[in-house]
């Protein structure tokens, strides 16, 4: 199993997860480029699906389905732990991660996770659902994955997010290294890197707790600390 990233629009990112015999398109906003890549690899695009139903992630669905006759799987019908078949290869596992929207989900492959608008590189998504506790629990699911898991997100917000992380933690020594590793042509990070720089995953660190203390914000529990970071920073 492998993954190819496609940038479209100003900052959206879509993906083709593929094996030697099959591929799955996720948030296919670049249908022409995806078809070209699959054709060069001599593999069919068998499934089209999404990380959530916001229009900027679903806009390429119909075009790609018409070009390939792929099977569309409505992401709202997927269940936690369900595996999407890649034909004679390990499949792609669904993780339900409500919070950004209540139907948001992620796709776990071999050594990587496609996170949509739940977890970005160096930040997290907005909690448009209003259910901050669900969002917290979803992020905790992702945080429990191995540290070398590659994070493939739904947007490239890296540089702006790092500027904001610098405001929150101006003395964080890991920010410069993370910035230097950023490649706009292939946007990815390891989960272990996110623990070093992403302020919304660092709610248990002494530096973030100290910032919350300075602002006299709730910080007794993990969820209180996460909520304070999300609502104030």
TrEMBL record:
UniProt KW keywords: Hydrolase, Metal-binding, Zinc
Organism: Desulfobacter hydrogenophilus
SMART domains in UniProt: Lactamase_B
This protein's record includes keyword Ion transport: no
GO terms assigned for molecular function: hydroxyacylglutathione hydrolase activity; metal ion binding
Protein's name in the database: hydroxyacylglutathione hydrolase
Enzyme class: hydrolase
CDD domains with a match to the protein in the record: hydroxyacylglutathione_hydrolase_MBL-fold (cd07723)
The protein's annotated pathway: Secondary metabolite metabolism; methylglyoxal degradation; (R)-lactate from methylglyoxal: step 2/2
Domain Metallo-beta-lactamase: 11-155
EC number: 3.1.2.6
Cofactor section: Zn(2+)
Family: Belongs to the metallo-beta-lactamase superfamily. Glyoxalase II family.
SUPFAM superfamilies in UniProt: Metallo-hydrolase/oxidoreductase
UniProt superkingdom: Bacteria
InterPro entries, per the entry: Clx_II_MBL, Glyoxalase_II_hydrolase, HAGH_C, Metallo-B-lactamas, RibonucZ/Hydroxyglut_hydro
